[in-house]
Amino acid sequence: LARGFPPPLSFLCLVDDVTVIKVYSEDNTSRAVEVPSDITARDICQLFILKNHCIDDHSWTLFEQMPHLSIERTIEDHESVMEVQSGWGMDSHCCLYFRKNYAKYEFFKKPLDFFPEHMVSVSSESNGIMNHSQLIQTFLSSSACPEIHGFLHAKEHSRKSWKKFYFVLRRSGLYFSNKGTSKEPRHLQFIAEFGDSDIYTLLSAKKVYGAPTDYGFCVKASKSNSARDLKLLCADDEQTRTCWVTAMRLFKYGMQLYQNFIQPYQKQKSSPMRSISENSLVAMDFSGHKSRVIENPSEALSVAVEEGLSWRVTSPHTESIHVAQPWFHSKLSRDEAQKLITQQGLIDGVFLVRDSQSNPRTFVLSLCHTQKIKHFQIVPVEENGELFYSLDDGHTRFTDLLQLVEFYQLNRGILPCKLKHHCARITL
């Protein structure tokens, strides 16, 4: 600093087992906090959840980003943040990001969405294809031998071009076949193992690395920060990349990942604090002597509209009520919306609402389903001097965007799935 060099984006200062770290949010605001030197990624997430009054839905995550390599990864909840930072070079400008990652443990809940059947098999001793109900147990068992296989693009450091190979991922490491799809030992060449390596996604696979698609990832040795040492790989689609990266995480951490997944729920059982889950929202009728759940979607809609209309009478500013909602992202472009949803997890039901750039009077609902992001126009409808909003050309109408979102959180309607997880940005 005395010579005029700028400090790295994230830094640490160790004094008597206390460390000062700097953490960034998605809007690039940052906060420096003093923490114990043995702090884990989950501890830091809990700290920022409390400081920012966030709802703890177990999706908040700490990310490691290396701008000079254009790569990033999820720091697992149990990992020591000091150990992660100790691998950074002084001039690397690596940084920590705090944001949501709804997909972090989704593979424990829905393995079929993460491991396509044509990419998964087990050893010959287990008689071929693995039953998906036992798939996660197989990954967690040190005695079982699950295998991921399929084609990936790979880039050799001595060449500028990418080439497609048949890859095989086993507990012992990652291999590629030098003879078609042969898995014979003499045809498999070792690429990497995961004991001293981490798995990163490429932030700009095409632009920075000349990859054939944007679904790039890499294996990086923990003690290396050189682009020459990256094992660069690229999939043809998001589902394929997700399968490979998830399997590598499971092989690297095994049972520890499962412990990370269940730990918050174990604490929840012993704590009276109420949490909000994706299934906690239901339509209720309180008009009678006893409350009841409204299961009929048509009835739920009519009740919602009636409540919205009566509420509108006493609240003259409902047209702009959406501006204060965490799921509303105003002047976000289509590309920015896709990037934000991708960052926060490509699982069913991740969504946001934004202004339409093509029509200033309308809005757009951006929603993830089957690891693809779809965009739905929200059109204003006028009737008898009153303004309503609709996703289905006026068939289903809502007095404001808040009512629309709340309805589709309860009912799928014309959408491919219900709205479950909103993309949220916070300022640290």
Outline the secondary-structure elements:
Blueprint: E1 12-15, E2 18-24, E3 30-36, H1 41-51, E4 60-66, E5 71-75, H2 81-86, E6 95-100, H3 106-109, H4 111-114, E7 120-122, H5 135-140, E8 146-155, E9 162-170, E10 173-177, E11 188-192, E12 197-202, H6 205-209, E13 216-221, E14 231-234, H7 238-253, H8 255-270, E15 284-285, E16 292-293, H9 297-314, H10 334-344, E17 350-355, E18 363-369, E19 372-383, E20 386-390, H11 401-410, E21 421-422
Parallel strand pairs: 2-6, 17-21
Antiparallel strand pairs: 1-2, 2-3, 4-5, 4-6, 5-12, 7-8, 8-9, 8-14, 9-10, 10-11, 12-13, 13-14, 15-16, 17-18, 18-19, 19-20
Give the count of helical stretches.
11
Shape: globular
Number of domains: 3
Residue windows where pLDDT falls under 50 for at least 5 positions: 1-15, 271-280, 308-316
Largest sheet: 14 strands, mixed
Q: Find the structural class using helix and strand composition.
A: alpha+beta
What is the CATH architecture assignment of the largest domain?
Roll
Distance from first to last alpha carbon: 25 Å
What is the CATH class of the largest domain?
Mainly Beta
Percentage of residues in helical conformation: 25-40%
**What's the CATH H-level superfamily name of the largest domain?**
Pleckstrin-homology domain (PH domain)/Phosphotyrosine-binding domain (PTB)
**Beta-strand level of the residues, as a percent range?**
25-35%
Q: Give me the count of strands.
A: 21
Which radius of gyration do the C-alpha atoms yield? Answer: 24 Å
CATH topology of the largest domain: PH-domain like
Mean pLDDT: 84
Domain SH2: 327-423
Family: Belongs to the GRB7/10/14 family.
InterPro entries: BPS-dom (IPR015042), GRB/APBB1IP (IPR039664), PH-like_dom_sf (IPR011993), PH_APBB1IP (IPR039665), PH_domain (IPR001849), RA_dom (IPR000159), SH2 (IPR000980), SH2_dom_sf (IPR036860)
Subcellular location: Cytoplasm
